[in-house]
Amino acid sequence: MKKKNLLQRVIITAVVTLVGLYIVIGPRRKPTLSDFTWSGIKATLQANIRLGLDLRGGSHLVMRVKTDEFLKKLTEGNALAAQTSAREAGYPPKDVKVEAGGGTYRIILEAADPSKLKEIEEAVKKKVELVDWISSTSGSTISWTLTPTAQRALAEQATDQAQRIIESRLDAVGVSEPLVQRHGAQTSHQILVQMPGIQDPERVKELLKGESRLELVHIVSPPSPAPSQTYATKEQAEQSLGGTVPTNRKVLPYAERTEPTTAGDPAPAADKPKQWVVVEWPPIIDGSELRNASAVQGRGGASDYQIAFSLKPSGAEKFGAWTGANVNQYMGVVLNDEVKSIAFIKSQIFDQGEISGRFTKQSADDLALTLRSGALPAPIEYMEERTVGPSLGNDSIRSGVRASVFGLLFVVVFMLFYYRGSGVNAVVALLLNMILMLAALIVFGATLTLPGIAGMILTIGMAVDSNVLIFERIREELLTGKTIASAVDQGFQRAIVTIIDTHITTIVSSMFLFVFGTGPLRGFAVTLVLGLVINLFSAVYVSRTIFMWQLTRKRRVETLSI
Amino acid sequence: MIQVFKSINIDWLGRRRLFIGISVALMLAGLGSAMFRQWKNPNGTQAFNLGVDFKGGTVVTTRFNQPTTAEAIRGVLARQRVTDATIQGVTDRPNTFLIKVPLEGTGEQSQEEVEQGRKRIRDALNTIGPEKEAYEILGTDAVGAVAGAQLRNKAIAVTLAALVGMLVFIAFRFEWTYGAAAVIAVFHDVLVTLGFFSIFQWEISLTVIAALLTLVGASVNDTIVVFDRIRENRRLHRRETLYKITNDSINQTLSRTVITQGLIILSVLALVIFGGDVLRGFSLALLIGTIVGTYSSIAVASPIMVWWEQRIEAANKAAALGAASVPNRPPRAGSSKVKAEALTARAEKHPRGAV
Q1: What's the gap in Å between the CA of B319 and the closest CA on chain A?
Q2: I need a surface site. Which of A342, A397, A546, B318 has the fewest CB within 10 A?
Q3: CB within 8 Å: A385 and B256
Q4: What sign results for the dihedral spanned by CA atoms A7, A8, A11, A12?
Q5: Nearest CA to CA, how far is A203 from chain B (Å)?
Q6: CATH superfamily of domain region A3-24+389-553
């Protein structure tokens, strides 16, 4: 064995060890002396290693975007637009139907005059965006069907949009370091949200799910000074429309706001019973035209908050034109399908408005926030909700660390007892493996989870095994009467083949877990793969180096403590 | 030096009938338990006691500030119309209980149960006293039916894919018979372990899956050590029969097996004893898995591999006899593959299907 070769090995080992050690216990800034005290090291260790939610505590939510409802809404919107454009072109259709569900989204328009189908189709095409829809005619009907490709693309878009909105809402509510990412298969339209440190996800859950939709509508009512037309029951409201609600009208509940009798009245009179109003549909303005919304305190004191909003330039223009043309008409502010307030137009309004509804500060804040971040393209539902309190996480770390330390101590004592001097090699290799494994986790920014600790335990097991394999092999070679140097040499050479086979087999199978698995499977695979790759270095290269060094120190080696 | 074994010469393969018998009995016991429970549902049990991770439902881990009993908690919950809860004390934590509510409804209703699960239990507990004062929620797991099925299917699919990956890699490094034998042995370990979970109705949660994955890794590792030795010995001793080489290889690696697997089993035993209730499923799965995995490398993987190789040999030989018109070119003889060794009297005494 050449001296130069050994020197090179010792240098590589020393450098890797020191760098690894510094990555684990060194701070990510200019170190000071206090960083290397016991408590300093402990603090840096905590800062360096990213713990998973199961260890540090927090909330884990998996939600699904109901993309089918998004497509349904889209189909209904287009059906309404098709009907309007056909009517405007002078061919009012006899009937417009929507088929939505079961993977089929179709608009069926029945013409009053079958000979005018071509004209109707042309008219609709001009006004409505129907590129992704296949049109076909039969008899007196035209139907537009959404292609499966477009369905997938639109559902995908809706999920992405929902993800962005969720991100911005979490950001606005001040959740620190949230993780928002797609979950599961692409076609499952699921989103995973992880919020470290959040113990009670109730408010955030409501906030994320909140579908605050704001609409400004024209109330069907005689103009002011006559009072606005309201109905006591839904049936009465529908009766005023002749029993059936046409597509360009909607019947909405209206909870009339009672003015607090005195400013700051802590318990204002109960709401008047719910009433119903008929509104024109589609609305004058919808939430997409909103520029900003914020909670402002109203006249009614601490429990009286209002939401002030402003419109984007395009919305303001539309709104200004409409209010200018409809002075003295009644307008309603609709929030989530409920009319919050009704007012008549005194004069032209452009871009400012407010929603009053006796909100509390928190509900006004939350509503303003969901309005600002835009409406979710589709409703979401929660599929999984997990929370871990900090004490539970700490306990898991403690029992995980305790079990590992116990196991490790046990192994160390055994190796030193059974393999004597060579046992020291094994122990050094084992400790180095653990240090480098943590260093690798830090370098790759991987998160340490409970299954990750399971992966570490398996790695330690295989690291011990590597040493046992090598040592047993060296003993075997010694028993055949070889010299110590050649026994060590042969022992390593033979055992390496086995070690590489076992390691690569496990790495190959872990790769599947890493690529196709989610959450826990992945956490397990990450530490296992990192640990095994490192073990090839620590148990084979470093252990060998120590042997070489021991053998070259003495001129003639007659005994080997193994 | 201290040695576990001086020199040993055990005829492992000679006991293969016994080994296979034990394995089959263990697997049948597990299968029998699973089938019986699934059909008859004794005491409301099913094939496996699946946790909320796979079945859906809500578990709330709660610590009470006053000593209480499962009965008292059940009473409080029942008064708030949470009647289907199971209450389970955590023995290694004072006054801590797992409150489990299964999913009852389907569709929209079960969706509601998942979203409101934590709230329902908390609202009920609030009748004892305010949160943080009277009690504290340490953790929640609420899983919907769809998410549960998804987790279950994913765990199964990915584990099977990983096994196929192993099979291919071992086939590439050794022979495909070795790969198949190793994977069958691992499969056997997983089945036996699951069998124990069915018989004793231990709960299967996501951490148990992590334990199963760990044991798959450890078991294959153990099998490959033996196979590696067989491969090496076949190169060194071309004249020996596969039967003898396999026995020798197992004996030669036996001290390594005893040391490594013994260390692992003892460490896992410590985990079972000191790991606490939360990790109980995990540590039990690992303990059974490592014991069965050690056993299966010797008692399942090796006999299957030998039996398969011998069948291939026999088939080749039959083909060679059939092709008597070209007597000077025995099939595969002289090829670099060690497979084409001559069968010995011992192997011939056990023709195809003997194992």
Answers
A1: 33
A2: B318
A3: no
A4: negative
A5: 11
A6: Multidrug efflux transporter AcrB transmembrane domain (1.20.1640.10)
